[in-house]
Amino acid sequence: MLSRLSLIRSGVFSNAAIKHKNRMSSAVQNAKTLDAQPQTQITDSPTIVQLQDRKFEEGKQYHGFQCVRCEKVPEFGIMSYSFQHLGTGTELWYVDRKDQNNAFSINFRTTPFDSTGLPHILEHSTLCGSEKYPVRDPFFKMLDRSLATFMNAMTGPDYTMYPFSTMNEVDFRNLQKIYLDAVFKPKLSYLDFLQEGWRLEHSNIHDKNSDYVIKGVVYNEMKGAFSENSSVFGQSLLNNLLPNHTYSYVSGGNPLEIPKLTHKNLVDFHQKYYHPSNARIYTYGSFDLGKTLSYVNEHYLSKYTYVDNTYSRIPNQPRWDKERNVHISSRLDSMGAPFEKQNQIAIALLMSDVIDIQETFVLYVLSELLVRGPNSPFYKSFIEPNFSGGYNQTTGFDPQTKDTFFCVGLQDVRVEDFGKVKNIFAETVEQVMVQGFDSKHIESVLHNIELSLKHQSPQFGLGLLFNTTPLWNHEGDVVQNLRVSNMIANFRNNLKCDPKFLQRKIEQYFIKNTHKLTLTMSPDETYEENFKIAESELLKQKVLGLDKEKKDRIYENGMKLAEVQNSITNVDILPCLNLDDVKNAAKQEPLHVLKLREVPTQVCNVQTNEISYLKCFFDGSELTKDEIKLIPLFCNVINDMGTKNYDFREFDKIVLSQTGGIDFRLHFAENIFDSKSYNLGILMTTHALDKNSENMFSLCKELLTNFRLTDTERLKMLIDNYVSNITVGITSSGHLYAMQSCAGLVTDAAKLKSELSGVEHIEHMKNYVKAHTTEEIMENLRMLGEKLFNKNAMRVAINTSKEYYPKLVNHYEQFLNDLPSVEYKKMENKVNLLKPSCQHFVMNIPVNYCAKSFFCVPYSHPDHPALRVLAKLISAKYLLQVVRVQNGAYGVGAKVGSDGIFNFFSYRDPNSTKTLEAFDNTYKWLQEHNEQVTEQALFEAKLGVLQQLDAPVAPGNVGIDFFLYGVSQEMFLKYRNRMLSVTLKELKDVAERYFKAEPAYYGKCLLGPENKALETETNLKWKTIV
Ligand SMILES: [Zn+2]
Asked: In terms of Cα–Cα distance, which of 221, 137, 153 is closest to 186?
């Protein structure tokens, strides 16, 4: 979707936060649009390799590397080869798999001993230019010259990684060259350090007398991160639970510490940690490894000598003999729960050494058993009594660090309940130690792990890398870690030999474990103010230390930096794909649409690795506005309330022991032909092993025909958790919320969409819950379900293998026979355009998210592909340059939706009006910078669009764009060809048509701090929402 933004290096904080996924993570994700999930294309989907030849032999040498180990991993169709470079000892892991989406990464073990953000700023700076590619920002330039399916760099708590993936071999080699040179031979110039790290600068760089300010990309990025409570909480948990070594520091950088960093620190850190002996290289897929080995050896590794890398090893954390408590304060979230409820608490326990693979697996299963779903003991003791807003993001098992840990945390808790939480924790683990777990519950957890092994993701290679990096970083056995079937077998065997196996683990890790941390967090109304005071104090100190000479240098550097930033670099030196490399679309799997028992059914026979996928769409056009607004809540609770024949615990157990879960979500799509109507309803999705597909259908039937809405207490708890969860993560996806809300100022359909899944949804839900009793809500939900779950309003998509299809269709027809069928008439939902307006959501955050939207043309209009190319071009050549590089926003871009709405957005932006003005000046820029709108720029923009159009699709999702949006394969190919044939003249024509005059239908939206000058500076009327 946000090609640029989603690729921006963003991993810094994610590692501190833990993986437990709530069913509903962010409201925005609920409503997907065509552009949000570009999945129209099919390529050679990963197929399981029958028998692979050994391409390399153990003990033999290849291009300076020795093959030290070669093993087959049949469950993934993998042949794994471990190499070691003879000169430097660099490890290289090659995962050979018949998958077109090849991946590559260079990882370094980076262990900072302060919170100045060294590894993070280095990660940014290495991408600013290197020996062979001395242009400014080659990484960002390559985004435009590649067909990468992923390109990024991330800083973890103890590693820095540089991964990419692509399906095109020319591209693979190009990116490999750029990445290798960036990490081993970066320029790391002083000006790059000032730009990416931090600097003192005059607020007006041309005025020596203007005030000094602290600037810098990472400095601003981390200011943004530190304003997100969930990030601060996760970071603090890591720092305090593992306080004796590198984990006690903020690898991303604490904004108040970053200004202690010097350029020399940065260069020294690179020298020490980016040595090949401290590097691990990963390569995955089907491309020729020989070429990689010889290139890496010849150009880089052969030029270094071995150093002992034990300096970057991380020792185990010495265990405490007494538990600890830590309290921190947080920003008061104006959209969150009431002040007295806006507290968080987590209890964390240090567990195994991550390299003990079987033990780590057992602890993962144990953690799932303890926290996930209505059968788990912590769910029963913490969630069901409904005194909090549910689990927070830290809940679950974390195997990212040298010592793994378990954590259970709650959000929206009263301070008075902190003590209660600690007691409940102790009581719960005592009880589990005595009672153990129900064997069906254990089976459902193991079944889900087995199912996920078969489920094919289009980013398998990267997924493997991300899952393995922490283990590899600590010198664990990455191949053994892939033998999940063995681990499951061992687990079952242990349990068989010792029925109290898990209870003993509970005793060891939960009852007798004194390395236990209770972290609590409460809002502080002066949090922002305190930060501002600390920041200005820091600035004052910095300025006091300046003599005349230093002041002159700051002035000069400010000008110099601006000059460099404003200059246009010649990027011809960078490799680029050409039209021949990309002109052919990938092969498409045939789709068939038939009517079975009167139900329109789309069938895709594709290699699914023994899994059948089912999607049912229920049209909601007969619903009233009030009913529509209940859909998100309905989707969130309907599979959690049980059925007439099973209570919610039983039902959860059965569903998870037979399927990958039955999920519901809102589906909302504007008509791609004319944008004058829209389609809205509920999408039910599930998948199961072929052998369980009959049960999958009967469980779906049970839920659709016998859903139960009778338990008010349970419903109330689910509603409360839902309301707490929708307010989490607004700031981390602020640009999406701003854009969605902004589109809602342009059409009434987009407005409705935002009310269903945007910022407006939060307010709506809070008010709705206040205005209705739980009984009333339950009754409304029940009526909604009865109206929606109707065979006559249903369409279905099935993805399964050709071989299994005949059997599946029998089960499917049986399922259709039993579904209720009520008379139904599809109605037209009309889209209306709205008068221009502007709105500002006032939030106490230190950054802004700006958006501007206007109406142009929908997907099927011949101008749409040209507008899409134009959006890419202005993002790369104009907005990035002005809003990110010059004005310091972390991200910025433009995109056009299939609904016909053109959007501009910025992310973690220090400015507001300045950025909105930049959006308005697009036409002017195009006029004045004609020299930048070249054939090459046009081609790069097309590549950017192709990255979305040709993105790989999972076998279970092939055909989804036709099913959900009506984009047929013929339409898609036509669109793709039309896009590739767009000329400069056409680009200019659409600019004239859509950008010259102020559009008739537009809106502007801002999420950010109070701004009194907004109306005068923009000369517009703003609606302020506090
Ligand atoms: Zn960053």
From this structure: 137
Which of these ranges, 139-143, 718-722, 771-775, 919-923, has the smallest mean pLDDT?
139-143
pTM above threshold 0.85:
yes
Other Cβ atoms closer than 10 A to 602: 18
pLDDT at residue 327 tops 80: yes
Beta bridge partners of residue 109, listed in sequence order: 159
Task: Please give the single-letter amino acid code of residue 144.
Answer: D
3-state secondary structure of 250: coil
Q: Is 872 exposed, middle or buried (0-12, 13-18, 19+ CB in 10 A)?
A: buried
Rounded CA gap, 785 and 789, in Å? 6
CB 876 within 8 Å of CB 710: no
Strands (E) in 675-777, as ranges, are 677-689
Q: Which token pair is 278?
A: 């401290």
Instruction: Please report where in the chains the tokens 């008509």 appear, as a residue.
Output: 671
How far is ligand 1, taken at its centre, from the CA of residue 743, in Å?
Answer: 29
The answer for residues whose C-beta is within 8 angstroms of residue 190's C-beta and 6 or more apart is 263
For 464-504, give the secondary structure using H, E and C: HHHHHHHHHHCCCCCCHHHCHHHHHHHHHHHHHHCCCHHHH
How far apart (Å, rounded) are the C-alpha atoms in residues 437 and 505? 12
Q: Cα separation of 752 and 757, whole Å?
A: 9
State the catalytic residues.
123
Which element (helix H / strand E) includes 407? Answer: strand 403-413
Residue 10 CA to ligand 1 center (angstroms) comes to 5
417: left (phi over 0), alpha (psi -120 to 50) or beta: alpha
> What percentage of the chain's residues is helix, strand, coil (to nearest 5)?
45, 20, 35
Summarised one tens digit per residue, pLDDT across range 511-521 is 999 999 999 99
Which of the residue ranges 133-142, 252-261, 320-329, 915-924 would you say has the lowest mean pLDDT? Answer: 133-142
Residues lining ion ligand 1 (Cβ < 5 A) are: 9, 221
Q: What is the pLDDT of residue 443?
A: 94
Judged on CB neighbours under 10 Å (0-12, 13-18, 19+), 767 is exposed
Ligand 1 centroid from CA 57, angstroms: 40
Structure tokens given for 203: 């607020």
What pLDDT is recorded for position 52? Answer: 55
pLDDT average, residue stretch 167-193: 96
Side chain identity at 288, as an amino acid letter? D
Confirm if 787 and 624 have CB atoms less than 8 A apart: no
**Nearest-angstrom CA–CA distance, 160 and 768:** 46
Rounded mean pLDDT, 291-300: 98
In the predicted model, is pLDDT for residue 335 greater than 90? Answer: no
How far away, in angstroms, is 124 Cα from ligand 1 center?
Answer: 6
Q: What is the pLDDT of residue 849?
A: 95
State pLDDT tens for residues 937-956: 999 999 999 999 999 999 99
Best CA proximity match to 126, nearest among 254, 230, 274, 234 = 274
Taking the CB of residue 308, how many other CB atoms lie within 10 A of it? Answer: 8
Q: How confident is the model at residue 589 (pLDDT cuts 50, 70, 90)?
A: confident
Tell me the average pLDDT across 243-256: 96
Quick one: which H or E segment has residue 852? strand 849-855
In terms of phi and psi (left: phi > 0; alpha: psi -120 to 50; beta: otherwise), the region of 515 is beta
Residues 471 and 359: beta-carbon distance below 8 Å: no
What is the C-alpha to C-alpha distance for residues 897 and 878, in angstroms, rounded to an integer? 20
pLDDT by residue (tens digit) across 864-919?
A: 999 999 999 999 999 998 998 888 888 899 999 999 999 999 998 989 999 999 99
Strand locations in 86-153 (E): 91-96, 102-109, 150-151
> How far is the centre of ligand 1, averaged over its atoms, from the C-alpha of 128 (Å)?
13
How are beta strands 154-155 and 829-830 bridged, if at all? unpaired
